[in-house]
Design brief:
about 325 residues; alpha/beta; Nucleotidyltransferase, domain 5; 2 domains; five-stranded mixed β-sheet; 11 helices; about 20% strand; binds 5'-O-[(R)-(carboxyoxy)(hydroxy)phosphoryl]adenosine; binds zinc ion; acyltransferase; tRNA processing; EC 2.3.1.234; TsaD; ATPase_NBD
């Protein structure tokens, strides 16, 4: 059987990334040029700056991905690229590049949904991992519970009604003076704090709902901080971080386990930037062990935005016969 090589490109937010992936699960190269330092100056991602940086970096990143894999463009079987959701100006850079390469080299073009990419990171991490399973996708832009019945077959069980989980981490971090991106900083601070120090709400919504809501929790943290300041009382950032994190994680774990049980699946996968959160990993692992479930978690480098995960998703579309035309357009609010 012939090996399939995919050159993948990802530029939906603030990482310019390219990768070469063999047969879906073997990463031959994974190049990520992060713009985080630049955006940190502004306390968050500035879309216009992201697009410009993608334009500057993308050629070099793609060349390096091919060089690191010790392969040429001619040896690729297809070009995979994220075409949504994300920042439209950022998406357009990667997509235009992918189209140009596909056209010039005469290779098929395969558009990939960014969230599908995040989920597929699990196939790279665990070579035997396969559907059906329940996926919790938590990142700076998304919080979705997705039932994956087969490769490329997704059913959204629930999603956030307001802020994404990572967004809540970032906003709370800013409120307690920890800077951007807040997720890793809260994660680290929480290890030194008491999770029971402050009683923040757990937002479960309606009894039968798999949706999430994090803006109320975020407001509760902000109110608490303001009240403490007003009273001249002490603020212990580590305790706030630990207490906030416990509220988020309890809800994420509980809804994911409930959804898995409801679908009769015994496998759970974490995906997205927040999946590298240590408390989420630990609590989910404990819950899975209690229920006899298997938990798949990608390494942190595969959790945050990267192109290897896009190459994996593109591979499964490729073998399913999916091909996109050069009229493929970026879609900032693409549905899964
Ligand atoms: O998947 P990702 O790189 O980009 C999006 O597609 O959004 O996720 C970035 C998000 C940020 O909000 C960041 O604060 C969060 O993931 N994050 C974390 C951790 N590492 C990254 N959140 C909690 N704990 C972490 N260790
Ligand atoms: Zn992402």
């Amino acid at each position: 059987k012939k090996d399939i090589y995919i050159l993948a490109i990802e530029s939906s937010c603030d990482e310019t990334a390219a990768a070469v992936v063999k047969n879906g699960r073997e990463v031959l190269s994974n190049v990520i040029s992060s713009q985080i330092d630049l955006h940190t100056l502004y306390g968050g991602v500035v879309p216009e700056i992201a697009s410009r940086k993608h334009v500057e970096n993308i050629d070099g990143v793609i060349k390096k991905a091919l060089a690191d894999a010790d392969m040429t463009l001619e040896e690729m079987d297809a070009i995979g690229v994220t075409y949504g959701p994300g920042l439209v100006g950022a998406l357009l850079v990667g997509l235009a590049e992918a189209k140009a390469i596909a056209y010039a080299a005469g290779k098929p073009l395969i558009g990939v949904h960014h969230i599908e990419g995040h989920i597929c990171a699990n196939y790279i991490q665990n070579k035997d991992f396969a559907p059906p399973y329940m996926a919790l996708v938590v990142s700076g832009g998304h919080s979705h519970l997705v039932y994956v019945s087969d490769y490329g077959k997704y059913e959204i069980m629930g999603h956030t009604r307001d802020d994404a989980a990572g967004e809540a981490y970032d906003k709370v971090a800013r409120a307690i003076g920890m800077g951007y991106p807040g997720g890793p900083k809260i994660d680290a601070a929480a290890k030194k704090g008491n999770p029971d120090a402050v009683k923040f709400p757990r937002v479960f919504l309606e009894e039968d709902s798999y949706d999430f809501s994090f803006s109320g929790l975020k407001s509760a943290v902000l109110n608490y901080v303001n009240k403490q300041k007003m009273m001249g009382a002490e603020i212990v950032p580590e305790d706030i971080a630990a207490s906030f994190q416990q509220s988020v994680v309890e809800v994420l774990v509980s809804k994911t386990i409930k959804a898995a049980k409801a679908h009769g699946v015994k496998k759970i996968a974490l995906a997205g930037g927040v999946a590298s959160n240590s408390a989420l990993r630990t609590r989910m692992q404990e819950a899975c062990e209690r229920n006899g479930f298997y938990l798949s978690v990608p390494a942190p480098i595969l959790c945050t935005d990267n192109a290897a995960m896009i190459g994996c998703a593109a591979y499964y579309e490729y073998i399913a016969g999916v091909r996109d035309g050069l009229d493929l357009n970026a879609n900032p609010s693409l549905k899964l």
